[in-house]
Amino acid sequence: MKDTVLVVDDSPHMHKIVGAYLKDDQIALQAAYDGETAISAAAERRPSLILLDVDMPQLDGFEVCRRLRANPATSETPVMFVTADGSLSDKIKGLNLGAVDYITKPFKPEELQARVQAALRSRRQLAATSMVDGVSGLWNEAYLQQHLPAQLSLARRSEKPLACVTANIDALQRVNEDKGQAAGDEIVRAVAHILLSHCRAEDIVCHCNEKMVLLLPGTSRVGAAKLADRARMEIERQLRRRAGEGIDVTCSFGVSDTQGESDASVLDRADAALHRAKQSGGNKVALSRPSHGGTFAA
Q1: What is the DSSP letter of 165?
Q2: pLDDT tens profile 55-74
Q3: Quick one: 179 and 257 in the same domain?
Q4: Do residues 147 and 238 share a domain?
Q5: What does the pLDDT read at residue 16?
Q6: CB–CB of 52/81 below 8 Å?
Q7: Which structural domain, as residue segments, surrounds residue 209?
């Protein structure tokens, strides 16, 4: 997917210059010629970066930036000011308003390219960081919600199943109470490591509140249940020693896929199966549509 840059300048000539300078950088350019249009376009189109001219009639760039920062829909969109005035006071003013950079006209093509690419890289890095769970190091719920629709769409188009596995550490609350939060976090990281070791590069593994969620493209619920059971046994083997005397750490799993008959979502059906696994004593893998009992017991 291309990055999108919204160019805000009242000069059509400047739009042509920016378009010529960035044409080879795999960037989709959007245009706005006044401040009001820019504010609306930014909220509607959600660009990756805004190149914002300071010297515009009616709303100048500084006021546009203030309004962008005040709107939750655009408050995190990076803004790079473009101006013919290179005074230090204006640069400080722009940076204090939250701009990520400042470029002075006239600029050379390579300077614009380098500054734009640096701003886009920073945005991608920040977006990636904001979607990583701080405890487990796995993707978080925001990442899951963003990518699940695309995975479901791909499964429909390819006519291949998408399996969903949800997992919950059975004794985690007791570990937290008896050994402390640090010990519980260590258990979470150990389980995350084991799950990742059983997954392929194309699989998605997330930590969402008290459970972990795996999306396995091209995998049926039967194949996913076998993977989950291998992980379950490895967790039981490794973490029985890790938690200390008196606490055996195990994990329960629920499994579903897109070939299920229920109208509920693939994630909801995996959660329902996980609930059954927990209710039946834990340390089990339960399928969303039981087949031959549907449960792989420890």
Answers
A1: E
A2: 998 899 999 999 998 887 88
A3: yes
A4: yes
A5: 94
A6: yes
A7: 141-296
